[in-house]
Write a structure and sequence with these properties.
alpha/beta; 8-stranded mixed beta sheet; 6-stranded mixed beta sheet; 14 strands; 20% strand
Length: 404
């Protein structure tokens, strides 16, 4: 089954085209991204498998045009991989927030769309863009079935004591205020792939997955199911991130609003877009910049990197206590996959319980690999995430079931 996987951001459309023969047998035919949607000059980067791709600058006024650019790239006479749009048999979308409406992926219909719309308040930076992507596909490929996979679905196995806030219960009943988590598609994939690489039975295991990137979250997984995760009502909660503050004293919010005369929307922007690495350093939201600045002696960059390790160790350590042990710790996502120093520092903090890193394996790992020493009491792995594969699998299985 030829499946197009779409991940719409507020100003971008990432895509992969996969030929799914089964859950574990597939080919990635092409991938790419359309960026700077709505700005004066957009950009499309298209990479067909085994062939030369292209980068083009062109106007992309909205997501509908962005989707048309994606499809045109896939059937491009020189760089395309399809003979026509009709070759696409299904489209799968990543959706950040599905609240407690969805515990798994779903076929797109009007009811599903209305529930995604209801969740826009919980993920204002993401869900509206996802809806634009769904509608853009509907306008260009009206007869192709679409499936949505939710970042929140994997976390629906948390117990009420783990997902409830100690606020008046009526706010949960009236406004659905609770912890939902995020990055669930990634946590689900890397926990299962990590268990496979480590030789563990996912159904009888304790795994902690660390998705560390511009947005970061840590999840505790017992017997293949999420029992706790660091993100909350929105993707703002948890540890320090690229531009997000993570956990802070809630009283800071009205305090700063009064001092700076900020509206709720302005304060939300401060916490989501002006904090984290960027806010503390005053320079950049990129961890690579923090590394460079720290090597040059920049004090604020050093604080950022130490806080990143500090927050991560607290979360991992807390989840070890919560599950009464751990068999495997997994690092994934942009920083988790490409920063061996961070992985080493976190593991060194866990040396008291017998965690030992293999320095050579940690420095050289580029693909799925065990990076702990043979005598480590806990296995540690680097697992590149593959959310697109999870979405493609779910899309294939749901559409195939309907067709049968």
């Amino acid at each position: 089954m030829i499946i197009l996987v779409i991940n719409c951001g507020s100003s971008s459309v990432k895509y992969q085209l996969l030929d799914m023969k089964s859950d574990d047998v597939y080919d990635v035919l092409a991938k790419g991204i359309v960026e700077k949607i709505g700005l004066p000059e957009g950009r499309v980067t298209h990479k067909p498998a085994g062939r030369e791709g292209f980068v083009r600058d062109l106007p992309v006024p909205d997501h509908k045009v962005g989707m048309k650019i994606v499809l045109d790239a896939l059937v491009d006479p020189e760089h395309g991989v399809l003979s026509s749009f009709a070759d696409i048999e299904a489209v799968g979308h990543r959706i950040v927030q599905g609240a407690d409406f969805f515990s798994g992926s779903a076929l797109v219909d009007e009811d599903v769309i209305s529930k995604i719309e209801l969740c826009c308040d919980f993920a204002p930076l993401h869900n509206p863009a996802h809806l634009l992507g769904i509608r853009a596909v509907s306008s260009v490929l009206p007869d192709v079935p679409q499936v949505v996979t939710f970042d929140t679905a994997f976390h629906q196995t948390m117990e009420p004591y783990a997902y409830m806030y100690a606020l008046p219960y009526e706010y949960y009943e009236k406004y659905r205020v609770r912890r939902y988590g995020a990055h669930g598609t990634s946590h689900q994939y890397v926990s299962r792939k990590g268990a496979e690489v480590a030789g563990l039975d996912i159904e009888h295991s304790k795994i902690i997955t660390c998705h560390i990137g511009n947005g970061s979250s840590v999840t505790a997984i017992r017997d293949g199911k999420c029992v706790d995760t660091s993100m909350g009502f929105t993707p703002l909660e948890g540890m320090i991130m690229g531009t997000r503050c993570g956990v802070i004293d809630a009283s800071i919010v009205p305090y700063i609003m009064k001092k700076e005369n900020l509206t709720p929307d302005q304060m939300t922007e401060v916490m989501n877009k002006k904090s984290g690495f960027l806010g503390l350093s005053g320079v950049s939201s990129d961890a690579r910049d923090m590394d460079s600045l720290a090597l040059q002696g920049d004090r604020k960059a050093k604080i950022v990197l130490k806080k990143l390790t500090f927050d991560l160790v607290k979360l991992v350590g807390g989840y070890i206590a919560e599950m009464n042990g751990v068999d495997l710790i997994v690092f994934t996502a942009g920083i988790g996959e490409h920063n061996p120093r961070l992985r080493r520092r976190v593991c060194e903090q866990l040396a008291f319980m017998g965690v030992k890193i293999d320095s050579e394996a940690n420095e050289n790992a580029r693909d799925a690999a065990i990076i702990s020493a043979p005598d480590s009491t806990v296995k540690v792995a680097l697992i590149p995430t593959d959310e697109e594969l999870v979405i493609a699998r779910d899309t294939m299985n749901i559409v195939s079931a309907i067709e049968e």
